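Researcher: We're teaching a course module on how sequence relates to structure. For the next exercise, students receive a sequence and then see the predicted structure as tokens, so they can try to spot secondary structure elements on their own. Here is the exercise chain.
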Amino acid sequence: MNSLYIPFLWELLFVLATIVFPKDTFYLFFVFYLGLLYYFYFFYKQFSFRKLYKNLGRIVTFWIPVLLTFAGMYLANYIRLHLFPEIFDITKDGTVSIIYHNDLFPTLLYALMMIVLKPVAEELFFRKAMIKFGSRKKVFAFTLLSLILCALSRAHGLLGIAEWMLMALPVTIAYVATRNIYISLMAHVLFEFFDNIYSVVYTIVRIFNR
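Model: And here is the predicted structure for the students to work with:
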């Protein structure tokens, strides 16, 4: 865990910054994810394009788990958006809002961040680097820690933390079950594309039709 001191500190600074500067969350998130990617790609060597390419040709052992994980994320998102508000009658759940201007460049940066930087950075840090395999107790402890820290990067309130732990659960299960980070990573990227592409395209079209 010695190699994780830097990203742990990085997340702590990020969480504090989102509390102190709530209007600058867009740029804080962008820098946070970019910093994680830089660290885990160049220093911690958690990602290989060659290994990703090899996985892409495996239908049964790669794409089927990816689709199942995608379905799990879709279900978790449905529960978060539709069932949680009915069960918990709370106006604010503590989720950190990502605020950006409806102009072309910020919108493109938002798309890059949400569809590429966010899912890849989260998988490399909260899954690949953080979850350690060994005894069942060890796996459970590190898995729970990864879920909590991942949720803390998105929410400050207890309900929000619970919601984002739920959102991280499918990709966490996929990684623990397969020990293949490229499965959870690909499912996460595909879900973020599905979840964000409509609003991004709509915003861009509206910008050009002002």
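Model: If you want an answer key for the exercise: The mean pLDDT is 94. The CA atoms of residues 92 and 157 lie 8 Å apart.
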